[in-house]
Amino acid sequence: MAQRVTYRRRNPCITGHTNISADNTRSNKIKVVKTPGGVLRAQHVKKSGSRPKCGDTGVPLQGVSSLRPREYAQVSKTHKTVSRAYGGSKSANAVKERIVRAFLIEEQKIVKRVLKEQAEKEKKASKSKK
Fold first, then answer.
1. Contact by Cβ (8 Å): 18, 5
2. Which among 10, 53, 87, 99 has the fewest CB atoms less than 10 Å away?
3. Residues 81, 83, 89, CA angle at the centre, nearest 5°?
4. Where is this region: Disordered (predicted)?
């Protein structure tokens, strides 16, 4: 008969002690490990972190490690950001879009100003002719 494995935490929810399985409690997953003494022990498996997503597009960010929220406090800054503006929060395409949009808005303002000046010159020219 197979050796029994018991949970090591206080959460007794039975989820089947074969390898990691979909179960009632996601935080109570275990993996059965054989120790050097030949004893089977339940090893609790931590939940895997989801990849951080871009705030604008929702695309997973490249170059940022996927960890559990609390683990980000222990890792260095290079694991959490990318060396560019909006490095750890926006994707490269989103930043590119923002730059292009800002540039086009500035261009539009300049065009409006030029057209306004031309209209004023035409008004002055028409008044001086009369």
1. no
2. 10
3. 40
4. 41-63
CA gap 120, 45 in Å, rounded = 73
66 CB contacts (<8 Å, ≥6 apart)?
48, 49, 50, 51, 52
**pLDDT band for position 16 (50/70/90)?**
low
Structure confidence at residue 127 (pLDDT): 82
What one-character-per-residue DSSP string does the chain give? -PPP---SSS------SSSS---S-GGG-EEEEE-TTS-EEEEEPPPPPPPPB-TTT-PBPTTS----GGGGGTS-HHHH--SSTTTTTS-HHHHHHHHHHHHHHHHHHHHHHHHHHHHHHHHHHHHHH-
> Which residue's entry shows tokens 């170059």?
63
